[in-house]
Structures are given as C-alpha cells and as structure tokens.
Design brief:
Blueprint lengths: L6 E2 L4 E4 L4 E2 L3 E4 L2 E4 L3 E6 L7 E5 L13 E9 L3 E9 L2 E12 L22 E8 L7 E4 L6 E4 L9 E4 L2 E3 L6 E3 L13
Parallel strand pairs: 3-7, 10-12
Antiparallel strand pairs: 1-6, 2-5, 4-5, 6-7, 8-9, 8-11, 9-10, 11-12, 11-13, 14-15, 15-16
C-alpha cells in the first residue's frame, strides 16, 4: 500500500538541494528546495542520479497569487507608508479565501517615488489592480506594486457614495457633486473590462 501523499504549503522547506533536483511547483534557495504551491509532494526517480521533487496542485485546491500575477484587491486601510489590501481575484479568477497584501509607498508609481503620498493614491474601499512582486507567508502579506500605467485604482466611490469617473492619471471626479479626488488611476486594458 502506498504511503499517503504529503501535503505542502507555499514556502515550506522540502529537502536539501543535495538530496534531489527541484521540479515543477518548487524553487531552490540557500541550498534547500521549497514548495512554491499548495499541493501534494511527488518524488520521481530519474535515471540520471538524483530524484526530482515536485509539488502538484489538486484540481480543487486553492489558487494562490504568484509573483508577476495581476491581482484585483480592495483597500482596507492606509497610512503614510503603505496601503493594506485584501486580494480578491488572481487575473479574472475569484479566490476561495482572501489574502492580505501591502502596497508600499515606493511601489505605487514608477517615477518620482519620493514624492508619492499614499492618501493621494488610494482610499479605503477602492478597488485596485496590482502586480504581485513578492510572495507572502503565514506571518506577512504579499507585496504588491501599482508602478505601471495599467495598474492602480479601477473603482472608487466618492463621499456622496457615487462611483467616480477617472479624469486623468491622478484624479477621479464624482459625477453627482463634481468634486475631484486624487488617485493613482489605472489605464484599464480591454482584457480586464467585463461587459
């Protein structure tokens, strides 16, 4: 009878890089092989020496944000150094459970990073498109960036509770009261528009 498959979580250390070769769903760092996915550990013996260690995701398992993925998130809170967000979608796929993310002040814009002010870029409740630049773990958040024209605020509500309209790359306007608010506005690409 085969032993039960070992379940791995992202960032879990699997074995020494001297014992095996990193396969799909894994990465090597500091002489060890780590899991980059949530899934089952597989060890295949190859003819050429070391066994290959890989992590295979179950069809039903949780989709996780990956470095370079574009995610949709909701701003929960802001301070002078960063915005805290909840990641809701990876690409166009909704997540079964939400993940926490952080957009640091220096990751908001690609230019004039020292002049960026978080409160002029995001407000709690905003829906933001961002790119994952670093994986989180159980204790910390995913690090996200909006430092591209296509990334930033896509949906924001005014104080009157009306969805605001972008009028430039750094401002949105309330169609009811005509008041303007500063935001880091995303130039939304057609593939992200749902009709």
């Amino acid at each position: 009878m085969a032993p039960p498959a070992r379940y791995c979580v992202p960032g879990e250390r699997l074995c020494s890089a001297e014992e095996a070769t990193a396969g799909s769903g894994t990465y090597t760092r500091h002489g060890f092989i780590f899991s980059s996915l949530a899934g089952c550990l597989e060890k295949r013996n190859e003819d050429s020496g070391l066994p290959v260690v890989s992590v295979v995701r179950d069809a039903e398992s949780q989709l996780l944000p990956d470095v370079g993925a574009v995610v949709t998130c909701k701003v929960c809170s802001i301070n002078s150094r960063f915005a805290k967000v909840q990641i809701l979608y990876v690409g166009s796929t909704p997540l079964k459970s939400t993940f926490r993310g952080t957009i640091r002040r220096e990751d908001i814009r690609a230019t004039e990073k020292d002049k960026v002010e978080v409160y002029k870029s995001f407000r709690p409740g905003d829906i933001v498109l961002a790119k994952v630049i670093s994986l989180g773990d159980a204790q910390s958040n995913y690090l996200l960036s909006t430092a591209e024209n296509e990334l930033g605020v896509v949906v924001a509500c005014s104080e009157a509770g009306v969805q605001m309209v972008p009028i430039s790359w750094c401002e949105m306007q309330c169609p009811r009261t005509h008041t303007k608010d500063f935001r880091k506005v995303a130039r939304v690409q057609p593939q992200f528009l749902q009709t």
